[in-house]
Design a protein that fits this description.
The protein is of the alpha/beta class. The protein contains 13 helices and eight strands. The longest helix has 30 residues. The protein is globular and about 60 Å long. It starts with 7 loop residues before the first helix and ends in an 8-residue tail after the last helix. The structure holds zinc ion (ZN). Zinc ion binds next to helix 6 and helix 10.
Length: 401
């Protein structure tokens, strides 16, 4: 073996790569749910979804179709938009009382994350926070106890269906905690773009921008992961081409298909890392209970401006890939601002009722958020607080570079 210990450029070319989820993709694939349950050895599934979705006809239709296939299916829908540990505990109870043997996770990021945490917790003796994604806490998990899970996304945004983590709110500490275990990966994903057509334009825009930010932050994150980089670039291309159409024509299945694919690609890509946009969005979501994708979309230009010295070349490359008229950092930033305007996303956090009052706390929480490690430049709590204040006030020029 050659000795590479003194070769620092070779030492950088290292990483842990993983994209193994089986995905059944396409319009109409939802009809394969009963067969998928059987193939995964599930005969008594618990369907986990959120309080809004459960009112839609197609959820009861899914349960009827399962019953016809002799799959006795339970229902749990007590999941908040930012799911909490009490939601997870309630779901675990329903699972155990109903003697279920697997989970169908149906919904956007909230329902999918809650379902993944429930699937994890039905077989553990330790409390949920023992599995926070810190160090090697995940080794504490009894992997044999994790329930099999089929994930069915109804939004094109978080890509939680292909992720190995769940973001759960610790209500007592007002913090979003990332729970991680490789076994939290869905056994199967059924990605049916028709299920995303019920999403209103504003949520289509916010979730779609979340997928864009996943791809962008992954592309800019430090670390060596050429597979994630390639996937991130193609996801941004798809989103730039199809997100405005998915918002303006809710039933456009071609646009919905490309957005659903892109959202999974964004989530696959961000195993490389995220950055300061997410580091700020996580505490803001926990403190103000605002939509995650909307927060990201508002924060993005301010963070790009701040990161400019470290990411200019990378953004110029995206400008080239997206075939913008002018190839420069500034033209890319202008394009982002225009895209947000087209999607009716506000320019500042003030517009969604966030003030600078808690900026010190926001800065402190952002600096220790796990996503902060991926940002190409490390920011102090003070810098995060200043960035947050600029985003509240809509002061893009005031962001230091
Ligand atoms: Zn996100």
């Amino acid at each position: 073996m050659p000795d590479t210990s003194n070769n620092s450029s070779l030492q950088q070319l290292q990483g842990n790569w993983s994209f193994p989820t089986a995905v059944s993709f396409g319009v109409g694939r939802i009809r394969q749910l009963p067969a998928a349950c059987r193939e995964e050895g599930i005969s008594k599934p618990l369907l986990v979804t959120d309080a809004g979705l459960v009112k839609l006809d197609f959820v009861s239709e899914l349960i009827v179709a399962n019953e016809q296939a002799e799959l006795n299916t339970g229902l749990f829908s007590d999941v908040k938009p930012n799911p909490s540990s009490s939601n997870v505990e309630a779901g675990v109870q329903v699972y155990q009382q109903g003697r279920h043997d697997g989970i169908i996770a149906l919904g956007g990021g909230s329902a999918l994350d809650a379902a993944k945490a429930i699937a994890l917790m039905v077989g553990q003796n330790r409390p949920l926070w023992d599995f926070e994604d810190v160090g090697d806490n995940w080794l504490r998990v009894n992997a044999d106890g994790i329930a099999p899970l089929i994930a069915i996304p109804t939004t094109a945004g978080t890509g939680s269906e292909v992720g190995r983590a769940a973001v759960i709110v610790d209500e007592s500490r007002q913090r979003k905690i990332i729970i991680f275990h490789p076994g939290m990966l869905a056994n199967r994903v059924i990605a049916d773009p028709a299920l995303t057509t019920a999403l209103p334009a504003a949520l289509t825009a916010a979730t779609g921008m979340d997928a864009f930010v996943h791809s962008l932050e992954a592309w800019c994150a430090s670390g060596y992961h050429p597979m994630a980089d390639g996937i991130a670039l193609q996801a941004m291309t798809l989103i730039s081409q199809w997100l405005p159409l998915a918002c303006s024509e809710a039933d456009n299945l071609e646009a919905r298909s490309h957005m659903l694919a892109a959202s999974m690609m964004g989530a696959v890509a961000f195993q490389k890392g995220l950055g300061a946009v997410h580091a700020l969005a996580h505490p803001l979501g926990a403190l103000y209970d605002k939509h995650h994708g909307l927060l990201n979309a508002i924060l993005l230009p301010y963070v790009l401006q701040h990161n400019k010295p470290a990411i200019e070349d990378k953004l110029i490359h995206i400008a080239r890939v997206l075939e913008l008229e002018e190839i420069s950092f500034e033209s890319f930033l202008r394009w982002i601002l225009q895209l947000r305007e087209t999607l009716h996303i506000p320019n500042d956090l003030q517009a969604i009722g966030i003030s600078t009052e808690q900026s010190k706390l926001v800065g402190e929480m952002a600096a220790v958020d796990p996503s902060a490690a991926g940002n190409p430049v490390l920011l102090s709590a003070k810098q995060y607080a200043a960035l947050f204040e600029a985003a509240v006030q809509g002061n893009l020029q005031g962001v230091s570079m």
